Amino acid sequence: MNKLIYFFEEDNNSGKELLGGKGANLAEMTKLGLPVPSGFTITTESCIRFLNDETFFEKELKEHIIASINKLEQQTNKSFTEENHLLLVSVRSGAASSMPGMMDTILNLGLNDKRVRSFAKLTNVAFAYDCYSRLLQMFGDVVYSINKENFNRVRHDLEKQLNKKQQDFSEEQQQQLIEAFKSLFITHDVRFPQDPIEQLFEATKAVFKSWNNQRAKVYREIHHIPHHLGTAVNIQSMVFGNSGNNSGTGVVFTRNPSTGENKLFGEFLINAQGEDVVAGIRTPEPIETLQNLLPTAYKEFVHYAEQLEKHYKDMQDIEFTIENEKLFILQTRNGKRTAKAALQIALDLVAEQRLTKKEAVLRISPEAIDQLIHPIFDEKELTNAKLLATGLPASPGAATGELVFTAEKAKEYHALGKKVILVRQETSPEDIEGMVVSQAIVTSRGGMTSHAAVVARGMGTCCVTGCESLHIQEESKTMMCGDIRLAEGDLVSVDGSSGCLYLGDIPTIVVENNQNLQQLLAWADEYASLKVRANAETVSDLQTAIDFGASGIGLARTEHMFFGEKRVLEMRRVILAQDNQEFEAALTKLLEFQQEDFYQMFKAVHDKPMIIRLLDPPMHEFLPHTMNEINTLAKQLKRRPSEVQNQIEKLQETNPMLGHRGCRLGITEPKIYQMQVRAIFNSAIKLMKEGFLVRPEVMIPLVSEENELRNIKEFLTETVLETFKEQQVEPFPYEIGTMIELPRACLIADRLAMNSDFFSFGTNDLTQMTFGFSRDDIGKFINSYKEKEIMVQDPFQTLDQTGVGELIKLAVAKARQTKEGMMIGICGEVGGDPYSIPFFQKIGIDYISCSPYRIPAARLAVAQANLIN
Amino acid sequence: MNKLIYFFEEDNNSGKELLGGKGANLAEMTKLGLPVPSGFTITTESCIRFLNDETFFEKELKEHIIASINKLEQQTNKSFTEENHLLLVSVRSGAASSMPGMMDTILNLGLNDKRVRSFAKLTNVAFAYDCYSRLLQMFGDVVYSINKENFNRVRHDLEKQLNKKQQDFSEEQQQQLIEAFKSLFITHDVRFPQDPIEQLFEATKAVFKSWNNQRAKVYREIHHIPHHLGTAVNIQSMVFGNSGNNSGTGVVFTRNPSTGENKLFGEFLINAQGEDVVAGIRTPEPIETLQNLLPTAYKEFVHYAEQLEKHYKDMQDIEFTIENEKLFILQTRNGKRTAKAALQIALDLVAEQRLTKKEAVLRISPEAIDQLIHPIFDEKELTNAKLLATGLPASPGAATGELVFTAEKAKEYHALGKKVILVRQETSPEDIEGMVVSQAIVTSRGGMTSHAAVVARGMGTCCVTGCESLHIQEESKTMMCGDIRLAEGDLVSVDGSSGCLYLGDIPTIVVENNQNLQQLLAWADEYASLKVRANAETVSDLQTAIDFGASGIGLARTEHMFFGEKRVLEMRRVILAQDNQEFEAALTKLLEFQQEDFYQMFKAVHDKPMIIRLLDPPMHEFLPHTMNEINTLAKQLKRRPSEVQNQIEKLQETNPMLGHRGCRLGITEPKIYQMQVRAIFNSAIKLMKEGFLVRPEVMIPLVSEENELRNIKEFLTETVLETFKEQQVEPFPYEIGTMIELPRACLIADRLAMNSDFFSFGTNDLTQMTFGFSRDDIGKFINSYKEKEIMVQDPFQTLDQTGVGELIKLAVAKARQTKEGMMIGICGEVGGDPYSIPFFQKIGIDYISCSPYRIPAARLAVAQANLIN
Prior knowledge:
The structure is a homodimer.
Chain A: E1 5-7, H1 15-31, E2 39-42, H2 44-52, H3 55-76, E3 89-95, E4 105-109, H4 115-122, H5 125-144, H6 148-162, H7 171-187, H8 196-210, H9 214-222, E5 231-237, E6 248-253, E7 265-270, H10 274-279, E8 285-286, H11 288-293, H12 295-312, E9 316-323, E10 326-334, H13 339-351, H14 357-363, H15 366-372, E11 375-377, H16 379-382, E12 387-390, E13 392-395, E14 398-404, H17 407-415, E15 420-424, H18 432-436, E16 440-443, H19 451-459, E17 462-465, E18 470-473, E19 478-481, E20 484-487, E21 491-495, E22 500-503, E23 508-510, H20 515-527, E24 531-535, H21 539-547, E25 553-557, H22 565-576, H23 580-604, E26 610-613, H24 627-637, H25 641-651, H26 663-668, H27 670-689, E27 697-700, H28 706-726, E28 735-740, H29 743-747, H30 749-754, E29 758-761, H31 763-771, H32 782-787, H33 801-818, E30 823-826, H34 837-842, E31 847-850, H35 855-868
Parallel strand pairs in A: 14-15, 15-16, 16-17, 24-25, 24-31, 25-26, 26-27, 27-28, 28-29, 29-30, 30-31
Antiparallel strand pairs in A: 1-2, 2-5, 3-4, 3-5, 6-7, 6-9, 7-8, 9-10, 11-23, 12-22, 13-17, 14-21, 18-19, 19-20, 21-22
Helix pairs in contact in A: 4-5, 5-7, 6-7, 13-14, 14-20, 15-35, 20-35, 22-23, 23-27, 24-25, 27-28
GO molecular function (chains A, B): pyruvate, phosphate dikinase activity
Coiled coil (chains A, B): 148-175
Domain Pyruvate phosphate dikinase AMP/ATP-binding (chains A, B): 17-53, 55-288, 296-347
């Protein structure tokens, strides 16, 4: 059994898992000789034992806490009982992975009605009662779930009644406020404990429990942090940034978290506690100003900041407090940063020879890469756009959406498929679910390190903070921007890189690949083993994919090509043909269209391989449904509408997903597949004659039985040979493979491999069939599933390794039994998911294929998967 | 390498696999000293080698055939070349499993233009040319696919022209007929080979190839005979039943194949070849008559028949020919029989101590049992029914359907979901696919051993043959029954047990379980290890199931109960409720209904276990769809129709099979499941108080994730405990289990087992998901799949062992890892399929559950599965 509690100065190598990130860093800094206020850490293991069985606290943990407090009293020469040397402590959560603002913190613990008077004598009335009232408020909130707003209202009422601010209250008036706060406890059937040690016990238990609060759970789900780790609790003697004007508190990054520039970046507030900076209630000042105000402390800080960055080999996010000109470092951690900054910092650190290329590749998260290729507003359009307000550029990107003022409304609109911009005075951890679903977040208060800014950067969501000219009226769901009144649902556009908020919809374009990104991805490619292909079929998407570094096309769908006005008419003729002549005539027209399509597509991908999937959707998807459209079609076909309608009705299906589609069409209507293959090879041959090297890869979808594959492969091969003959060219190599997207295909993969040159897993359909979920219909129950924690990850975004992954693994093993070196890829949505890629690497997949914009992140993810493998 | 050819008298134990059933029996009979015409058998292995590579014939087989013919010439003292001792042979197929009429036969082989004259001199002109013209006709049909009808037409034309029957032709006129037949070959670009050995080569090759003709393949599919076995070819010197009036040919069963009575049963024709009896062209006479006509031959035959039955320990189906009073046995095999006869014979043989009980259980096929519980017409209704015609009661049962006159039409109507009665002058092997889909088969010609009768008995299809008063006009698709004209599509009813054909629809009832069946199934139960449960929920079905010997109920669905007029209204109220009050009020009504349902159900199954499945279908299945119905509903609910319509539309799903159903309803609407469980336990407690022993088994459907199961089990368990408390009874044992019907459920079976008291595989849905097939939609492509032999077995009827079976096997193994003794059953359609049951036995399933009428067959099948295991 490990120890339950460690003092910061204890020499141990337990690290983050046991002490949490904050605790481990406090220990580390103490060892480095930095001015860290004394304290100790209750381990994550204690948290887990408590959460499993709350009696653990009484039976074991309590006596260790009492012993530790006694030791802390000796170390600090302060006391929980003596009146002259008051020990006050902070109680902070700290998990192994940083979860900013998700769990609870209580400051100033140790004050009570009596001790606050001594404290007021030692310092001053305003400061002492400020601390005590903060304690009551935080304690009420954290331990007894009394909403903080209740306290604010009570304070506000008294301030109004006395017609002055709290800081100007007399001691008696301060006590009046405290009594009012204590009454709030009573109305909630609880009382504020006067005994400091009892305060500590309750606070510790509450922080343990905050591990399992809803917003912390959601945060962990989003960031793929396991639920079983627990949080450590750090008990630290208090220092006071709110001791007057030669005190203060701040948060500083050792480099710029937005740009990566190698220069201190941060903010501080004079005469404030740490919460004031983070909560965004007052707008802080830039760190440089400190140089003038408190030059000694500033110099000292700069020194420690350098020391810490060197030590941790990464940009640090440091919290400090100055108490009467004396500097204390309260916390350090690797700083969150924008993608752009992350990239700049990683490359700089390599240039400074502090990191290797491999370490740099491992340090950037694939999600960060996504931010770099986020769209920005089209400059040309911006000149005409109506600027509503300007704030701080807290997280880059550009987004348009409908205005909402609450997290609930954001979720509600999102569920209806709307894009939303969440505008708040300030955000709080309670808003997390609403923030996740928003296109952008805007706050009227708070700085670059406010809650909104930190969370938004973490998610790569566009964010503007401190937009002070906005006047938000939450009750009436409106806001004033100067003289413009905007209401819920109005369209606004947000530029997170410039900090601007615009009226209406503004078109976006994509940033050019920057050189830093190119550099990093070039390194990544060196370390990767999985290849990255793209899912694309339009010439512009194919171009984007190649530009983003796709090594080929993993899935070019052919059905989209039939939807143009002229084409869909011919397709409809094919489907509804009454005789062979009509059928063949329409098919010939489609052949011409397809030939031109494939010619352009092959040209766009140059010499890179491209897998073309034959027609997949059921026929009825190409047919009209409204009576109006049917009438038009009937006229075009020179048929009676009722007749056409009848034919259309006959083609309807109860469960189209499980219906007459994919290779089933190839079996019942071989001529359509033959036409497609003829078009593919005619184009390939044409290009070959023009000097290009084309090696077509044809993919047969929705195979469930080896006979399907055998039958279709047979007639397609005949068609290919005929085409070579007709075009009078020597046969050249080509491949015919199959999509594995049904559970049965996985189970018979060894047999399918015999008639297949390659496999490509269609994880979307495979996930649908394995779960028995229709993506079109899960909306009806998936919210219940998330709320009740029945389904934490969306299996359409991140591979369900337990079920679907097991089938894929089985299929790969079976296929390799038949054909050791067969090329096997993933072309479903999860192919581009960084959390799924290591699994694909492990089971021996050759390539993943994703949408063009996901390629840069995927290139990094495959390199990382190989490096950590 | 085995020998390619065996003479009948060669002592070998190669058996049926190598020699085919016919060849092995000919060898066996020769060894027993029976009068079998000399000959030899070309092995099935030779057939397979030939079918794989036709050059095998020239390279190897040919010389062996020549050597064998030389040996046969010596044995018979006849010759293929000499004119005075003409050797004529028959060439017959003979596979390991009997496939009556499916493959080809050629008789009289060895005749040619010249040899027929010598033959005419040795016998007589009419006989010789009859033989020769038959040879030409059969050879043309079998070797060159020249339709037999062409020959008949030529013969008919000449008979008309000469105004006499062929048997009365002069030799010159006979030769004229032969020349006309030979011209038919020429018009088909082939010629009839004059060299007997060449005839033999071509005939042998043609018989080999007939293994793969369409009707043989279909037959094998129906009877689950593997396609890779091949057929042997038997070359036997001819004897002639058509040598005049002291010659003849017949087919005799050693016991009655309809009733099992221990008495010779058969037919013969004087002056005829075997084909005449089987083809049903002339109506033959009962075997007893032979006693008077040819008493010596008859006595001899009776002797051999007894010998053969003793030898084979089973009822024999014997073909014989008498040539100028000399008896030859041409073939014997275990006779096909009705279920009733099979049962009687098996029980008699046990009584005669020729079979053990085990052997008797193994001898009856489960399909035969199905026939015994086939419906018969209600006697009361029969008195008023209009009798159209009477024929031979060829295969028992009773059926009503629409009249069709061709196999094609039968298939076409069947595909439209219609029940059809196929009426033909006579059936031929080409009709097999139409016969399979018919409710009953009626022929106007042919006897009890005609093609129609044999095939129908084999399939358990009701059949009447030799209904000579029917005048069928195939062209006009009508038939005259006396003065009544019936057209295609008219409703008729057929009684296969009485041989009667009636006009219109007659209600049927089910035969009482007869004592023989009870006896056999009692023996079966002794040998079984798998239990047989029933899928049933109405009180009458539950009663039938118990009467048929179900050991419990494997699947009682609860949704059917909501469809009564009053109930569906309450269900709709629940679904469309606008407030909680309305919801609860309707739910309470449903609770009352369900309580009464479950009370009656528990009572019907007595002390046997019953698994009740909670609500499974999506909510929209309970809602109306037409505007009329919606208006009525709106009135009932006192709501606006447009509002109700809106709500209904919102509930629609794109793929309901993959939608909001099963346990997903349990998650989103826990109160409905709670209501159901409350109803189950209230009823159980009520019965318990009345002195019954009830142990409810509750099943949760469509689970794909362990959290679903955990969540639902948790709140259901709470409800159960509440119910015990409310009813003030001591808790008694009950089980909560889950249906495994999604691929993912199979993959995580180990985890699901932790929260499940039992598993029941829902193979219908599991098959749908594994293949990605919707049963509602496969109609659009399944016929193509069958035609192109892509899907041979219907995976919804017989388990797909390769895919679905693999998943089930995996799940069983995983579940047993978690809970060694957990009860696991099968409740999908394939649970009652005799071809799937051995697989379930092998992988360790505890019980199968099927519809009540399939229970007797299943009881036998599970015993057999255990005995052969």
